[in-house]
Amino acid sequence: MKKVAVLDYGSGNIHSAVRMLERIGADVELTADPTSVARADGLFVPGVGNFHACAAGLVAAGGRELIAERLTRQAPVLGICVGMQVMFDGSSEPSPSPVDGLGLWHGRVERLDAPVVPHMGWSQLEPAPGSRLFAGVEDERFYFVHSFAAPATVADLNSGARVTLATHGTPFAAAMEQGALSATQFHPEKSGDAGAALLTNWLDTL
Asked: I need a surface site. Which of 12, 67, 102, 108 has the fewest CB within 10 A?
């Protein structure tokens, strides 16, 4: 049984993530303890709400160092929703106290350029060639709730990453995979059987 640490830094979608990971057979621990995070087979980084609030919470919990330590030894990390966004350089989302992202991927998160925002509901994707996350679920729909995302142009800024796209008004990065770091803008833990299959694919890489 694979051990997954769900990073506990005050974000809001933790419990649904824990339940889904347990459903697919992971041994899950909700923690920010550095030893537990380092020893886990996989680190799951949730995120809901304002980019800057999440980034500040992540920094306060030592998340920047915990994630960096894992990636230096190619230990898998998966970010979800704003947990994906904080992997970028920053965000244009308004905040009285802006906080930089982790800068693990180049580019900035921007407000969706669409007639209706937020983007809320089920959408089909254009999985990146060779994606491990989407193996067997290439044609499935996944559940989104967001107003900001990394624009599709981040694919040009991160040549080593596999970028899966979705479209709401304009194309945006729905998922990214590069080495030990993976992330999705949608919520696999709220995406039913398709989300369970995607998380199982990630679990199989641990």
From this structure: 12
